């Protein structure tokens, strides 16, 4: 996809500029650098605290390179990781191949769409890392909830994080923001985000902070906004019982800016009583 910001940047860089999908093959190294830099931390601890001991295998949806899967493997859990993008699945399998035999034996990697999957087994817990639910629009999220219901053991949980509603401010939030951050390699990147309220979407553009790079990869992506109340409403309509949500910080040392949503399929709850 193209964004207005990407078009301006590409026009200024000439043949050096290369437009690519953030989850595509061309951007694989950038994806690895950024995703592994943000792995683990408060989110892993918050989810792990809500997983019942002995509840069985765990399924991570939209697993990426295993932002949750690998920390959970370190806890000794049995994991299945489902990811749609072929380039990301390849990166995940490369990473898994470098792990110990014990870790490899406890992890299954599947290429698939989290809005419509059938794995032929059930799980005690299904997890989705913060932000990953946002890759699905309203029309595809019901398929996700139905697929999760079909794969949960009786009493099994669905756990995922969504951003807390921002505090009210006298002035409206700007529609665009730009920030710099550092990847695991130490390389600096720029993220530009543009909200489109009428479409409930946000356009994302990521590129090297050094715009003289050759080639200059310009990676784009789109996400759909979903808040805590909307997520809970959708889960209820999909037949889930939602417990009181808890909160956690998105990064170490930050205030609690994320909400952990926990849900159990309603008829599974009743059947287990």
UniProtKB/TrEMBL annotation:
It comes from the Bacteria. Coiled coil: none annotated. Gene3D superfamilies: 6.20.160.20, Vaccinia Virus protein VP39. Residues 58-156 form the Methyltransferase domain. Pfam families: Methyltransf_25. NCBIfam families: daptide_MTase. This is Methyltransferase domain-containing protein. It comes from Amycolatopsis orientalis (Nocardia orientalis).
